[in-house]
Amino acid sequence: MKPDNFSRSARPTLGVEWEVALIDPETRDLVPRGPELIERVNARVPDIHLEKEFLQNTVELVTGICDTVPQAMEELRVGLQHVQREAQDMGLKVWSAGGHPFSDFRTNPLGDKESYKEIINRTQYWGQQMLLWGTHVHVGISHEDKVWPIINALMTKLPHLLAISASSPAWEGMDTGYASNRTMLYQQLPTAGMPYQFENWFQWESYLQDQNRSGVINHTGSMHFDIRPASKWGTVEVRVSDAVSRPAELAAIVALTHCLVVHYDQMLESGERLPTLQPWHVAENKWRGARYGMDALVITSRETDERWVKDELAELVDLLSPLASTLGCHRELQGIMDIVNRGASYERQRAMFKETGSWKDVVDMTCAEIRF
Q1: Does an H or E element contain 92, and which?
Q2: Residue pair 243/135 in contact by the 8 Å Cβ criterion
Q3: What does the angle CA 318 – CA 327 – CA 50 come to, to the nearest 5 degrees?
Q4: Radius of gyration, alpha carbons of the chain
Q5: What is the pTM of this model?
């Protein structure tokens, strides 16, 4: 196996991948016509970057290399506009959340990539349940020696990123009691879940060599950690967040992610030690974020101090606001407080279901929210 050469990024660039899905407006169930829609959009507008995904019902909107959150969001706005227009012509709606509240995973066909088929072949029932959608944020890093210290620091803020994005409370027609059921389902894959807290790039390369020798990478294509290096692009890829329906919330999530990565990068540059937590605290925080969302009590120090995630988020916004102004995303970062004050997507979904008793109404609400 060749070394995992990291394509260093000269500046803290930004890239966003946002997964949306196609819905039948009558049944409100998922429709496996993503590849067809992508072909139709690309025939009309070839420069719109859309990707096929694990499931045929899904379309992934992908930005180019951006410098600011507003630039990335404008690319997503244009892409979504074309996707929604084509979906309407096909008699479909566009929907986005971390998980569909009632669709049967057994009726949703896979995409045509061989790696997807191999994942199912290896993981069987557990892999077949991956009826899940997420948000992936890439931030450019100048040197591979920074990558793992930054990832380990970001893991201390995993429940924060999870709470504000949590949008998958229901599964197979029932409320799971979790804010992000997606998080619990996705970590079932043997290559997914929390990254190991590697101390340096050499340990990461040694790990990849072991995974290659044992056949894991050959069968799955890559490791699907919550946060991972994306060496081809010279980025850290943050994959913690559920997909969300409101663009303003997506912008806030992307802004917080961008600011956190750059903040930790700057701390390294100034010789400061980055925060870390014991693996068992990181695991507990992840579970609390998935279970309780915005009401999570999170562990904030190696001494096991605890604070409410809403209070932590408010302090993070204050701390990062000057940096956000420098990065051109001050307004978007303030959107975190809108989520804190008004509630996250999973809370709106639960409120709608409590009001009407229908998960179909929840799907309608979610479709209606996808407007810039």
Answers
A1: none
A2: yes
A3: 115
A4: 20
A5: 0.96
Tracing tokens 């077949």 back to the chain, one arrives at: 128
CA atoms within 13 A on the CB side of 191: 24
d(C-alpha 162, C-alpha 158), whole Å = 6
Each residue's pLDDT, cut to its tens digit, for the chain (372 residues) gives 667 799 999 999 999 999 999 999 999 999 999 999 999 999 999 999 999 988 899 999 999 999 999 999 999 999 999 999 999 999 999 999 999 999 998 898 887 777 777 778 888 888 888 889 999 999 999 999 999 999 999 999 999 999 999 999 999 999 999 999 999 999 988 889 999 999 999 999 999 999 888 888 765 557 889 999 999 999 999 999 999 999 999 999 999 999 999 999 999 999 999 999 999 999 999 999 999 999 999 999 999 999 999 999 999 999 999 999 999 999 999 999 999 999 999 999 999 999 999 999 999 999 999 999
Q: Could you give the domains of the chain?
A: 14-369 (3.30.590.20)
